């Protein structure tokens, strides 16, 4: 019998919830985990797109992938997603807190306090709520894990997107604290994502000119990432291949450092 070096990267038998999985990086993660054998529930504020993306992934991978509407800032919506996922698949073994968004505002004096609160609610509190809602099921699963889509902007000066970067920095602290609190029961990790060009940048106020500059970022590789680059790292952290990894932030950013993400 030949040795299969990729066997532990398989996700057969795992049930995954991915928030914000209808497009961009989240859709890439959903497709990759489904392709590795997982049953996937995409939870996204855009319910129609979640259904469309899930149906496309199911056709491509041949594995059960479903989508449903969910506003992760609404605790009731989170409870419904967990209930529907368990009803469809019999449990939950893997949670990917992928939701994240932040608008651009280079003038700190122009940022209202409410924008900080809204960013914290979307980027940080939603991950906590989803994690706690899934926890009773995760604790019953083998190789249970929670993995967050963090941001490299949380670890370097990010003056263009201060509320978002601040909320993602709080997510880093929550991750490592939960990893210790849930030790021996659930693995908890985060990926700090660098510059990945997606269609979502336009809605964050990133102009085509800024996106062109982002095609030549200050990193060691010399180009921005692809959603698949993040999905590959996510597969490792969610799969049995990372069964000895918890409480870690994994940098996937081309090996670079940035001071100003988008420029003025």
Automatic annotation (TrEMBL):
Family: Belongs to the short-chain dehydrogenases/reductases (SDR) family.
InterPro entries cross-referenced by the UniProt entry: NAD(P)-bd_dom_sf, Sc_DH/Rdtase_CS, SDR_fam, Sec_Metab_Biosynth_SDR
PANTHER family: 7-ALPHA-HYDROXYSTEROID DEHYDROGENASE (PTHR43618), 7ALPHA-HYDROXYSTEROID DEHYDROGENASE (PTHR43618:SF8)
UniProt cross-references to PROSITE patterns, sorted A to Z: ADH_SHORT
Signal sequence annotation: none
Any one of the GO CC terms: cytosol
Molecular function terms, GO-annotated: cholate 7-alpha-dehydrogenase (NAD+) activity
Highest taxon listed in the record's lineage: Bacteria
Protein name, UniProt field: 7-alpha-hydroxysteroid dehydrogenase
Organism listed in the record: Cereibacter azotoformans
Keywords attached to this entry: NADP, Oxidoreductase
